[in-house]
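One-letter codes give the sequence; the integers encode the fold. A sample entry reads:
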Amino acid sequence: MEVTNLNTAERDLRLEMLNSLLTTPHRKLEQVKEIHDLIIELDPIFYGHLAIWYQHNGDVRDHKEVFVSYLLTSSLTEHRDAGFMMLQEFPPYQVARVVDFMKQTLGKLPRSAKTAVTRYLKVREKNPTQFDRAVLRAKNAMKHLYASLHIKPSERANAILFHEQPPEGSPLAALKQLAKAETATDQARMIVEYDIPYTVAVGAVKQITPTVLVALINSMTPQEVINNLKSLKTKGAMDHPEVKQLIDSKLEEAKKSNRVSAFKAKVASDVVELDSETVARLEQVTNEQVKKRGTITRATALLVDKSGSMQQAIEAGKQVAALISGITEAELFVYAFDTIPYPVTTIGKELSDWEKAFQNINAGGGTSIGTALEMMRRKKQIVDQIILVTDEGENAAPYFTEVYKTYSREFGVMPNVVIIRVDTNFDWVERQLKQEHLPVETFTFAGDYYSLPNLVPLLSRPSRLELLMEIMELPLPVRKDK
């Protein structure tokens, strides 16, 4: 038992927590439970501040839900109060997932957590417009919250949710009439007048005309347009000039919106066959959203493993290059490597530019991670941080740690090393650097590009300490009713 406790104490749990944010559970929230259990027990103060920081800076909804679940079930009053306030900002489907996670995975749902959900529902009941919008978008989730927690709905809420009797003149009543509308003009009018969401309206409208599409897109947020590009394309939205222009305007809004996921635009451009102009707009959305995370002011090297079976590292390297090149104000050097280095250069900073730059880089050969840094040493390319995208399976000289020590002595610098570990569980380079007391941080990348923007705060701060201090400075929200 003593050995286990010692090993746990020696682990850098704060770094492991940040590392866990680079994985997306895809609704399998139990996959991140272990690290949350450890850090809330051993460093509850940091955990609370990290939860607030991620609520404002994170992209992955699964992590946000887990944070709130742990805060609501914490033994600390300030945690429960913070979770109470944070829950009020969630859409209904996320509140339902938080409740299920607390009950099914954590095995508890404190009275204060039920109070938080009750407050959430009662606030919406008092605002009929807000309540109707919530039901339009997440009817099943709203019913689940009332039923699973035995919360008594108001008379109006009960009629809408459990008796299918929405009041006349409400958006919910209008939805029932939408399918009966005789003309596209009438349908468009109802969609606009009652602000019926796209995903709901498309199921009620029998024929999607350009007029209806304009009404639907007008009612969508920029994020909803991005999420539904495939559906919009299928319904002919890209073939009608006026509708296409409206989509373009929504994508322009997405660049500045604070409610757009940085990499969802990139994923949308991958899964939908779009024209080059729209793909370029989506890349611009990604770039602008990433810029909000921070600016890299330190000279940086990105070294990408192209040895045998490292195709995933190459793909991740392209994404990281596109991610950081647009926010790097200092020099950026990019190399691929097997047992020799391959400089990778591009004029542009878009993902398409990096795709072109990497197009002839193919996986194959042995692994000498130090070879790229040795090339930089000879060219006197001095950097303050080095990003390695690799499985750490180094099997040929020059070895990275040895070259690093020479590089450091020669130029009088000690670059921070960030390892983005892909494909396997080797830790060779990390262990070698730690044995020499050299600065290294490791993040495991599981292939989900949604999570890569979480690297930006680390890369854009002078040190991990500064990032941790920034997190600790964020105040926990306080319940307003206390």
Q: What stands out?
A: The two ends are 42 Å apart (CA to CA). Strands lie at 300-305, 332-337, 341-343, 385-390, 416-422, 440-445. DSSP finds 26 helices and six strands in the chain. The mean pLDDT is 87.
